[in-house]
Amino acid sequence: MTEALNPIEWKNDALVLLDQTKLPNDIVYEEFTTVESVWDAIVTMKVRGAPAIGVAAAYGVYLAVRNAETDLVEVVQKSAAYLATSRPTAVNLFWALDRMTAVKAPDATYKEALLAEAKAIHKEDEEINRNIGENLLTLLADGMGILTHCNAGALATSKYGTATAPMYLAKEKGWDFKVYADETRPRLQGSTLTALELSRAGIDVTVITDNMAAMVMSQGKVQAVIVGCDRVAANGDTANKIGTLGVSILAKHYNIPFYVAAPTPTIDLNTPTGTQIPIEERHKSEVIEGFGKLTAPADVNVYNPAFDVTPHEHITAIVTEKGIVRAPFSENLEKLFR
Ligand SMILES: CSC[C@H]1O[C@H](OP(=O)(O)O)[C@H](O)[C@@H]1O
C-alpha cells in the first residue's frame, strides 16, 4: 500500500508540512519553526485548502509565542493579525485564529494551552472529515460517476478530505465508481493533487481539462458533482475554487445534483451573501507561466481571481459533519449553530 501523504503534522516540536507546490513529482516535507515561514507557506500554497490553512495558522500562532518571555497575549494577538493577512477567502483561517486568540490561561501555562488548542483544531478536522464523508455517502450510490473540481481532499485537510471523503469511504465499502477530476486551472489542484491522492488510494480517477466538464456531463458520465468550499455565506452562496460557478451552471443544465462538502468552520453566518465574500486575486504568472514557460505575452493584462461564488440556487445540498442542509439555506444553516 502506498504510504499516505500527510499534509500537516506537529512533530518534534515543529510544524511539518508537505510542500504541495512540488506535487505530484516530488514528495518533500519541510519543517517550520517560525510564524513568518508559516505565513509564507500559506501565501505560496505549500499548504492550501481551507481547513489545512486554518490548522497551519493555528500552529503558526504557537510558534510565534513559544520563545517569547513577556507580553505573551500581545504576541499572540499580533501573530494572529499577521497570519490573517496571508489569504482572504477561506474563513477557516480567521475561525482558527479566533480560536487561538480566545485561549485564556495563566502565563505559566499559556503556551501549553495554545499548543493544545492548535492540536485540538487539528484533531477536530479529522473527525469532521469522516462525518462529512458518511453524510455524503447517503446521497451517492454504487456505480456512480462523480465529478469534482480543485482539491477538497486529504491534501486540503487533516485526513479524508471533504469532497473526497465519501470516495475513500465508498472504496472501503467496495463500491465501483468513477471520479472525474477537473485539472482546475490555473494552479491545477485537480490534476496535481486530487488525481494523485485518489490514484494512490486505488480509486478510479480520470483527469479532464476544465473545458471538458460539459461534454463529460452531456455523455451521461456524471451522476453527482461534489466540491469543497472556502466560505459559505449565511444564505448558502458558496465561495470555492475558480471554475466552480461554471461547473454548477453545467450541473444545473444537465440536472445533476451539485453537493458542497462543508465543514461547519467554513460556514460564515457573519457574511450575509456571496457578494460580501472577499475574493483573492493572485499573481498573473500563475496564468501565463503556470507550465514553466510563457503562454501569453509577458505584458498582457491577466485577471486571476482564485475563487468564485456559486449562488445557493445552484446548490442541491450543503453537506456538513452535523448533517445535510437543503434550501431554504438561510434558515437551515442557522439551525446548525443553535
Ligand atoms: C476542503 S476545502 C479546499 C478548497 O480550498 C481550495 O483552494 P486553494 O487550493 O486555493 O487553497 C479549493 O477552493 C478547495 O475547494
From TrEMBL:
The record marks 150 as: Transition state stabilizer. The keyword Isomerase applies. GO terms for biological process: L-methionine salvage from methylthioadenosine. Its EC number is 5.3.1.23. Substrate binds at residues 48-50, 87, 189, 240-241. Pathway: Amino-acid biosynthesis; L-methionine biosynthesis via salvage pathway; L-methionine from S-methyl-5-thio-alpha-D-ribose 1-phosphate: step 1/6. Keywords: Amino-acid biosynthesis, Isomerase, Methionine biosynthesis. It comes from the Bacteria. Gene3D superfamilies: translation initiation factor eif-2b, domain 1, Translation initiation factor eif-2b, domain 2. The active site is at residue 230. InterPro entries: IF-2B-related, IF-M1Pi, IF_2B-like_C, Initiation_fac_2B_a/b/d, M1Pi_N, NagB/RpiA_transferase-like. HAMAP family: Salvage_MtnA (MF_01678). Catalyzes the interconversion of methylthioribose-1-phosphate (MTR-1-P) into methylthioribulose-1-phosphate (MTRu-1-P). Belongs to the EIF-2B alpha/beta/delta subunits family. MtnA subfamily. This is Methylthioribose-1-phosphate isomerase. It comes from Paenisporosarcina quisquiliarum. The lineage of its organism: Bacteria, Bacillati, Bacillota, Bacilli, Bacillales.
